[in-house]
Specification:
Chains A, B, C: It holds the Pfam family DsrE. 3 copies of one chain form a homotrimer. By secondary structure, chain A is of the alpha/beta class. The first copy, chain A, is built from 4 helices and 5 strands, in the order βαβαβαβαβ. The radius of gyration of chain A is 13 Å and the shape is globular.
């Protein structure tokens, strides 16, 4: 099977991030890498979770999933609001102008939505 | 770009409302007013947040977004459950028989779903 | 009207379950039983809520909704993670290999998504 899906984070809630990462790992096990498209979009306070200085366990998992094709997007509006710089964030993250707009576009293009 | 999206609230959580309102403001900045369609549906305890007597800051924001075409729907089932009257609610709110049914219909008609 | 919708639970949060069950009851009142399709998918910690030994009030409601065609799915990955056996769970539950995959498939097949 192939899956198109976007996971949405918006709280500074490490548990939600961990759940999302586990969800994605489980989904990858069942997925054709060819047809699948898996995104995580972080806006609001949740952008904190993607700082370079954040706990290393999640960083290793995020990097591993990224090499398997999972895309991690963080919201520029939220970086501005909380005074983070793009360079504070994990290099593998893609900065999008507005996380909410990205969530809309991905769903319109056929992605399922999951809020862990 | 134009966006079709519904934001869902169901807790008496002012932070979720504030996040939703900020999300909508950011989306409007990126949006053609012509083609876009932005809804907020409140059911369960979240209907409390749309009472006239509720804090004025959010009311001003809600009114401003409403003049820009954003639709605010509150659930009649939830009003009944918590003994609120339609007249307790902000006049600009549209009362729908069941918030959940509205969420289904909007998604079926092509709206993305976002739970702040 | 007929409705196609999936409700997603992932926390050990009885309030979210209760809200979801009330949502479904309200939706059934407005729905043609013929065309509608209503699912609840539980993954993560929320699988605890579907154990046989769990509180009886919800069990009665779940059983009643199930006789009306509502499908309750629980995630095998989550059962494994928390060391629950399928036989610990309410007999009416359908065990799916991965709750997240089920959520994707249902949305792809036209179900709206609701996170109570």
């Amino acid at each position: 099977m192939s899956y198109k899906v976007v996971f949405h984070l918006d709280l500074d809630d490490e548990k939600a991030l961990s759940m999302g990462l586990v969800n994605i790992k489980n989904l990858l096990k069942m997925s054709d890498s060819s047809g699948s498209e898996i995104h995580m979009v972080a806006n609001g306070e949740s952008v904190r979770l993607f700082r370079k200085e954040f706990c290393e366990i999640n960083q290793a998992q995020i990097a591993d999933l990224n090499t398997k094709g999972v895309r991690f997007c963080i919201c520029q509006n939220s970086l501005d609001k909380f005074n983070y710089k793009v360079t504070d964030m994990l290099d593998l993250c893609e900065v999008v102008p507005a996380g909410i707009a990205e969530l809309c576009l991905l769903q319109t293009s056929g992605c399922a939505y999951i809020k862990p």
